[in-house]
Each structure stands twice: as structure tokens, then as C-alpha cells.
Amino acid sequence: MSSPRPTSAQASRANTPLHFRDVDLDVSKSYKHEDESEAHQLYRQAAGHKVKGTILPQTVNPDEETVPGIQHPGSTGVIYCSDRAQANGFNYASSHEWSNLGQGAPEVGPIPGAPDRPLKVEYDNDALEYAPTTGVKALREAVANLYNTTYRQGKASQYTYENVCIVPGGRAGLSRVAAVIGDVYCSYQVPDYTAYDQMLSAFRRLVPVPTALDPEDHYNLDIKQKDIHTQGLAVIIASNPRNPTGQVIKGKDLKELVDISRESTTTVILDEFYSWYIYHDDDKDIGKSISSAEYVEDVNQDSVVINWRLPGWRICWVIGPKNLITALSQSGSFLDGGANHPLQLAAVPLLDPQHVHSERIALQKHFKMKRDHVLKRLKAIGVEVTLPPVATFYIWLNLENLPDPINNGLTFFEELLKEKTIVIPGIFFDINPAHRRNLFNSPCHHFVRLSFGPPLEDLDKGIDAIARVLRKAKKEGMRSFGHSYRRSIDGPASLTSHV
Fold first, then answer.
1. What tens digit of pLDDT does each residue of 260-311 get?
2. Count of Cβ atoms closer than 10 Å to residue 206 Cβ
3. Strands 164-167 and 424-425, how do they pair?
4. Which H or E run contains 490?
5. Residue pair 241/247 in contact by the 8 Å Cβ criterion
6. Which of 267, 294, 426, 481 could cysteine-pair with 444, CB 3.0–4.6 Å?
7. For the range 54-59, what are the long-range contacts, defined as Cβ-Cβ under 8 Å and sequence gap of 24 or more?
8. pTM above 0.85, yes or no
9. Per-residue pLDDT for 149 more than 90?
10. What is the similarity comment for this entry (predicted)?
């Protein structure tokens, strides 16, 4: 006699990781739509995050209607998550009690083997004047020299200070570039850096054209995509190394991407902030970095734009053809006015090529150690990372094998806030300028981004918090999850009562 066909609930339980098979999963409460989830309702009620299209019912937020003519653009993932953390008691004065695995920043303290960090800035009276909107010439020359020394030795075409614009931070650099781009189709990828969403929404002359990257293909960008020719894509924007997946475009693939700028009259904008955070398999390669600058043939003809920054200093540079730098000077005159003058002068010695090489060696050794430590600890608590990062300091963590409702990024994030730990839900990396689709349909919905940028002790606190959530799920079942989230530090603990 054949066995009866298993029910869908039984099949779901059979595919659940071993340590959750005997848990009361409360499968009758399986969320399929954002309207059913308290974590998703909280997100929609934050200013700027209501649905902008007509596919879903409009979420009304009176706070967005108080000033005529004002439209909230929506916050980036880190800002939204920081606001939610503060509603749960987080503040920077007592941040030692929390584990912040959400902030996209490396640790700022001493790193073994690295040069000493500058702890003070000295400058003369001239530095109290406004700096040029293109930046201090000495710093522009230092940037050009660093890139020529690192990536362009022996090449006829060399960068000069005229190919460099200094701006007050990475987002300012992207905004300046976006402000000088005309009415064109702009290609972007999902997932990618959260600020691209706001940039593509705010600068409406850019018509966004998405490409969904496939996790089965390690989120690789198809360099030979036909869209570039058939859709007339004039701009491609991407982070490289990739935020949040921790992957990297390099070698032949990176060369082909740069070649597009020469062969297809397409401008390639690459945000290369994580280019020093590369984790090599061979120790002899430690200290090497990657940049599209290596594959540019003519620095004033190839339409390749590079964005990089010194985190925390709000000193960023944009590298590209000279005529681009002139345009960026003009957009900076009305967007941001230029970078901090004293800090530009203080940054000059930090870009000495030998200093930078020593810094890269130390960073790569230290952050590879932290990456391996976090991956090992996650595996030990039953969370397998299917695609470990080879660059950046992020882990793109797939939650879909966890039980409902902690198998989506927003709910997992809210549950970790109760444990004084911050991560970034994956939906913030779903670059979706129209904000129309049901969040449950996002390809990033079942992910969170974990940063191993913080010091090791903070990383351990965060992994301990994840372990507590998983133990609670195993011990108590799922009825205690998915509800009772604070709207504010003084407000009620939940939007709705749990049924």
C-alpha cells in the first residue's frame, strides 16, 4: 500500500533545516503579502516609503502631507535601520551595548600592521578659505599619481590633476555625476548599493533600466548583454567590488566592461570604494587591488568614471575625462560647494603609494581574518552562507531556509533589534525607483546584509544575537515572532495585537 501524499505543510517542514524540523512553525500564519506583516507595515509608514504606483493600495502617512510641495524621497537602508534601532533604544552614546552589523563602514581603530591613523589635523589660515569645487590641486595630483603608479605604469596615457575632482563624500560624487547626465537610459543592477535608488528617483533625466543579477551565476554582470545596443543604454552604473554581494568584476570581465565605453558610446560609472578590500587565495597577491583604471586606454577619451572615498572623512574623488571634471565643477557649485579644505590637505600624505600599499596589506589580512571568523561562526549556529564574499566587508545572507516569518529580511531585522543588533534588510538593495511592487515579490526579500566592518568583539555580539533568535525559534516555535515592534522609543510596542 502506497504512502499518502504529504500535505504542503508537511513538505515545507521536510525541507526545513534539521534543527527546525520539530519546531511548532505555526504554518497557518504564513505571510504572502506585505499587508499581512507588521515589519513591512512599519517600513511603508516611514516617510518616503509608501507605494508610489497603483498596484498596491496607498499607505497614508500624514507626516508627508504637512508641507505643500514637499515629497519625501525615502531614506537609504542604513538611515532607515538606524532610525528603527533608535526607536528600540539604540543611541551612539551607548552603542557599545549594541552590535551594529548594518553600518557600511570599516572599523576606525588601529589595525595590526597598518600605518598609524592620523588623530589631529594641522593647517594654516589659507585653509580656512573655501576650496575650489574641483578640490585642492595638491590632493588632485596625489590621486592622479596614486592611480598612475598602481594601475597605469608603462601606459602612454596618464591621469593628471585635471582628471580628478574632489567632492564631499561618495554620495556627493554620485549626485554631481547624475546632475550632469542628460535625458538618457541608465542601466543598473539588482542588487546593488542602496543610494542608487534615491539617485535614480531624484534625477529624473535618468531613465532607469534594471538588470536582475542571478544568484545561481554568482551575481555576475553579463558584460555582453544585448540591452546596451538594443535599448540604447547611454550609462551603466555599478559598484565594483559589489555591494552587497561581496563579489567582484575583475580581469577579462572588467576589461570588457571598460571596452564598452569605447565601443558603444556608453559611459561606465563604477563605484570602486571596496577596491582595497579584496581577499586573495594566494598570499603572494596580498596588497593588490582592482580598478577599471587599469584597462582605460585614453584617460580623456574612454568614458569611464571612477568613484572612491575615504570613509568618515567625507573626502571622495571622481576620476574621468577632463571634460567630465569641468562639468562636475559646475554641478558642485550649486549642489554641495566643495569638500572640506583642511581635511583635503590632511589627506594628501595618506595617498603616498607606499603608504597606501602598506594600508592595503594590513586591511586585506585583517578583514579576511574577520570574514573567515564570521563565516565559521554562522555555520556553527546552522546558518550556511551559500556565496561567501571575495571582496568588500559584507555577507549577503540568504534566509529562505529559516522558518516563516523570520525567513524575510525585514522581519529578521526587527527581531534582531529586540536583541540589540542591527543588520540591513535585503529589500534596500532592490533598486526599485518606482516603489510599486509587493515587497514579498522582491528578489532581495529573503536576504539581509551583514557587515564584518566593525571590530571582532562587535561581530561576536551580533552572531550571538542571531544564535539567540534561532534558539528561541527552536525552543518556543514561531508564535512569538513577527509582531510587537516598537514604533518609537516612547510609543506603543506594536502596530497590531498578535492573533
1. 888 878 999 999 999 999 999 999 999 999 999 999 999 999 999 999 988 7
2. 23
3. unpaired
4. none
5. yes
6. 426
7. 54/436, 55/436, 55/437, 55/438, 56/436, 56/438
8. yes
9. yes
10. Belongs to the class-I pyridoxal-phosphate-dependent aminotransferase family.
